[in-house]
Amino acid sequence: MEIKKSKKADLEGGKTLSVLMGMIIALAILFVGFEWGTQDIKIATSEGVADIIAEEEIEITRPEELPPPPPPPPAPVVTEVLNVVEDNVELEQVEILTSEDDQREAQVQTYVAPAVVEEEEESAQQIFTVVEEMPQFPGGEGELLKFIARSIKYPVIAQENGIQGRVICAFVVNRDGTVVDAEVLRGVDPSLDKEALRVIGTMPKWTPGKQRGKPVRVKYTVPITFRLQ
User: Fold this and answer.
1) From CA 214, how far away is CA 211, in angstroms rounded?
2) Alpha-carbon dihedral sign for residues 214, 215, 220, 222
3) Which of 141, 137, 152 is nearest to 205 (CA)?
4) Which residue in 184, 190, 191 sits closest to 221, CA to CA?
5) What secondary structure letter does DSSP report for 207?
6) Collapsing DSSP states into helix, strand and coil, what is residue 175?
7) SS3 of 146, please?
8) Geometric angle at alpha carbon 172, from 166 and 173, rounded to 5°
9) Cα-flanking dihedrals φ and ψ of residue 209, to 5°?
10) How far apart are CA 130 and CA 128, in angstroms?
11) In this predicted model, what pLDDT tens digit does every residue of 148-192 receive, in sequence order?
12) 147 CB-near residues (< 8 Å, 6+ apart)
């Protein structure tokens, strides 16, 4: 048995027409919308251009004309007044000093030399290490070695302990030849150092050292050797 369809119940026939009507309405709306938006943009653009032209208008001003400065006041006129003096009037005499008068007065004044500190006082306190003429033991260096050998008394403590060596001593020879300020520069043993200083203290007067022909204080160094036989 065949099934028959009714034309009223057929929905496919009106579907195509509905789609076409919807597309026409949509295109009409888009067209109206484009026309409306283009009109607004034109209006806005024209207003902006007018504002820019108004802002770019430049105001032209002219400098004000200043009046010229007033002329300077005239300089005062100095009139020279001459005093006429009669021949009978006595005038005061004024002494005029010249450079020659000043030189004459300077020559008359006596020259006073400033006080100078004597070099002898300074050299008396100064101690030299090297001078033109070094101080000398009476009889020379050979007599100095003999004097030391004769004067040394070997300490018993050093002998018992077998201590020996060289003690280097220094002392100052005054301007009058006396020996002072003896000291040990390099020692070996306290007993040997003490004996070396004792021997130096018993030395006779030396021939003093000289600098520029004048006696001066000189520091002298002597090695004293302690040796067991």
Assistant:
1) 5
2) positive
3) 137
4) 184
5) B
6) coil
7) helix
8) 115
9) -75, 160
10) 6
11) 999 999 999 999 999 999 999 999 999 999 999 999 999 999 999
12) 137, 203
